[in-house]
């Protein structure tokens, strides 16, 4: 009788032990599973920040955003020469970079005979309507504007400015005083704003989007909205020169020995156009460039029939394309500015 009671108690104790062991094992398995899930969730988090050269770049690239990038009414950045009625307004490199004026009455211009508008020396000018916007060498490259007769001279900012582009009453420029970032300012000097946090080599205004050389990402081609709200990479190609029309971005592809390429603003349809080493791209109905494979001669590439034509054989140093003519200076500088009918 006693033995049977003892045996029953032993059975009950064994059942309770097995039940308790099973319960503890299940609890540990559940805890382990929950911990793995948390780790996986944490490791899949992506902040979309790229770090390059010690700088943090906000990269909002995505296929959806990139498809929004487009070009409308592109504007060529500031230059060193413009036509104005029957005159030329230009930077005279033979006269301490002073802004000069010369009558448009010849195909060759002796710079020693040109007249300065005043004591205004510039690295770059941009002509719009009756005003000249310029980076003032005599004041640390700061942005100024004045009337085309040299009056009403006014400072617009306190930044060493380059790549000047004027659209309506807004001026976009590279602020060399702030790590070469893209800025904007109203043409009356108010509302100075930083557009891009990235250092920039150069840019071209393309309407809603600005296409630029991202120095923080090995000088690759990026696009940013003109209010700075979205920033996207267009291609991994590194470039030196670029020009826009309403359909494509044309650029010298340093990733392919500066050969001429084009790409759609959304990053699609990349195509090599010429197996030539090119520089100084300008679009004015056609695409103009300096051919590095042909003694720095000046060429024109038709955007309609894709034919290439050599225009000058003078070893070009720099050139400008205006509506009816193009102007260039030779590498062997003799103080003469040359005009070609476009």
From TrEMBL:
Residues 30-68 are annotated as: Disordered. Residues 40-58 have a biased composition (Low complexity). Residues 30-39 have a biased composition (Basic and acidic residues). InterPro entries: LRP1-like_beta_prop, SrfA-induced_signal. Signal peptide: none annotated. Residues 127-339 form the Prolow-density lipoprotein receptor-related protein 1-like beta-propeller domain. It comes from the Bacteria. This is DUF5050 domain-containing protein. The lineage of its organism: Bacteria, Bacillati, Bacillota, Clostridia, Eubacteriales.
